[in-house]
Amino acid sequence: MFSFFRKKGPDGQEVLTQTAPLTQPGSAPETRPGMPSEVGPATAAPSPTPNDNHYDLSQLSIEVSSSSDSISPAEEQAAMMHANGQLAAAAKVLLLDKPNFAGKRRLESWMMLFELLQQHNQREAYEALGLDFVVEFEKTPPTWREQNTVSNKKPTASGYFALSGKLSIENIDKSIQTFYQLHKNNDLLRVDLTKITAIDTISAAEILAALQQSHKKPNSLQLIGSAKFIEILKSHIEVGRRQPAEAPFWLLLIELHQVLGLQEEFENIAIDYAITFEVSPPSWDPRQAPKSAAQIASDEAQAKAEIHAAEQEKNRLIGSISSDKPEMLTRLNELVQAHATPVIDLNAIERIDFDSAGQMLNLAMDWLQQGKQVRFVNVNPLVHTLLRVMSITEMVSVELRK
């Protein structure tokens, strides 16, 4: 798709870089236990033409620390191979190049190699490389990341449903149908009442019927933000004022306390209702375990935290951004468009394939034209190098994983 890419060389000038596989200079590195030992044939790079006007740095007794402004041929090839899913081959490229970067404190090559061994699950080779890293940098190497273990316990299916704004005969029917569908499909449905601002008689009757229907699945509802909604309902009623149009508000208020588990409050309001309308008070459903106000507050706080975590998880980009998962780039663009100064966490992205990187380049140009100051944070070293090769780092701020 892309034959050449522009990037800046050590002297700051733009040069054309070929993306085809490169031949590797140098001899094979010393093999440590657990490291890949078989490396494909390498062709030595041609000797540079002597020039009297330039120093030959190879003949000077000075160790040159490679600038992070340039990408070595081995780093570029390893990044391309990784983008194509060739993890083992990419690791061998950097191992072959190790004699060239070892001793020069070139952190980029080391971190790319660590990441390749991590993703390839080569822990023994990773730890062996760590010993060399300590000698070179005199500091602790990156820590091996344990693979996430999948729990055998099946999580309880939970859903989220919110009512908001002014509830009226014009909009309540659609909301209630959504409620029924979610309640049917989830073991636990969290009903968020926080954003309700007003309610009419018809809406109160519809919500009452829906909550009463939920008794067929005891303890299957959890109310969130009920305190404000309870005050809204109380504003519609008065003890001793017998208005038939107010009955749904009374009964919904009673039902809310049933669902919450507040038995004492339930019985007090039920008695006031019975006095006002001269009828028998509703009875407490014993299948609902009574709860204290403190317990309800604790449960609600936990529910809000879980809802927030679920929303964050939904917004995370996880795994690989590849041509067979076009929804990943779509989601990335949605996250960028949703914020004025987007900060996109790529910590869980292991790989971006070549085609997707090309599409990301087009997106980055669009974001730049829109005035978006996009930041990618927690980017792994392999993806970081690929984004540099593609010049995406010239349009998007890209920060390495710490």
From TrEMBL:
Name this polypeptide is given: STAS domain-containing protein
Entry keyword annotation includes Coiled coil: yes
SUPFAM superfamilies in alphabetical order: SpoIIaa-like (SSF52091)
Domain STAS: residue ranges: 343-402
Entry coiled-coil feature ranges: 293-320
Keywords: Coiled coil
InterPro entries found in the cross-reference section: MlaB-like_STAS (IPR058548), MlaB_ABC_Transporter (IPR052746), STAS_dom (IPR002645), STAS_dom_sf (IPR036513)
Organism of origin: Chitinibacter mangrovi
Annotated segments matching region Disordered: 1-55
Biased composition (Polar residues): 15-26
